[in-house]
Write a structure and sequence with these properties.
There is one protein chain. By secondary structure, the protein is α/β, with parallel strands linked by helices. The chain has one domain: Dihydrofolate Reductase, subunit A (3-Layer(aba) Sandwich). 26% of the residues lie in helices and 25% in strands. The protein has 5 helices and 8 strands. Strands 4-3-2-5-1-6-8-7 form an 8-stranded mixed beta sheet, sandwiched between helices. The longest helix is centred in the N-terminal third of the chain and has 12 residues. It is globular.
Length: 193
């Protein structure tokens, strides 16, 4: 059975919203976008590429899928990162999308999300990765469908924003690895306990 692996940049107060840019996701009046940049270190990119070697599909919520697709789909062939993201199969969960034509190799999941994700996990293959996608992650966590969390924990508290873990849900995890990076970020790998 395949594993679902959540891979996130997260603040000390559990926020995952808009790590990459000021205009990335301003929903709810969020004004802290781009909070990861002062802490960049090449090991963060290396961790991502290592994770992708164990992954053969992405599972994303609509907003994250649109943000990623807008960035990666236009990339010219030959860019290693763009090629990886554009050729990998993607599953987007949305009740509002009617087409996935804006990002190649994407499939729409518009109903029976929990059952569809269980069916994806039952297929042969490597890991299924999720990033961003707070609403989807909450749904999957509530149905005990997430197997691992690969977190880059940043040394800051944002005070507001979309959270990785849903309010009121207990999630028991087992620490597999914790590794500080020179920029103050700590990479943490957890499995379901």
């Amino acid at each position: 059975m395949r594993k679902i692996v959540v891979s996130e940049f997260v603040s000390l107060d559990n926020v995952i919203q808009a790590p990459g840019g000021t205009e990335e996701d301003t929903e709810g009046g969020f004004t802290h976008g781009g909070w990861t940049w002062p802490f960049w270190h090449d090991e963060i990119g290396a961790n991502f590429f290592q994770e992708m070697t164990r992954t053969d599909a992405l599972l994303l919520g609509r907003k994250t899928w649109e943000i990623h697709g807008g960035a990666f789909d236009p990339m010219a062939a030959g860019d290693p990162f763009g090629d990886l993201m554009n050729t990998m199969p993607k599953y987007v969960v949305s009740t509002t999308l009617t087409t996935t034509s804006s990002w190649r190799n994407s499939t729409l999941i518009s109903s029976n999300v929990v059952e569809e994700v269980r069916a994806l996990k039952a297929q042969p293959g490597k890991n299924i990765a999720i990033d961003g996608s707070s609403v989807l992650i909450h749904t999957l966590a509530e149905h005990d469908l997430i197997d691992e969390y690969h977190l880059h924990v940043y040394p800051l508290v944002l005070g507001s924003g979309k959270k990785l873990f849903p309010e009121g849900l207990r999630v028991n995890l087992r620490l597999v690895e914790a590794r500080p990076l020179p920029s103050g970020v700590v990479f943490m790998h957890y499995e379901r306990a």
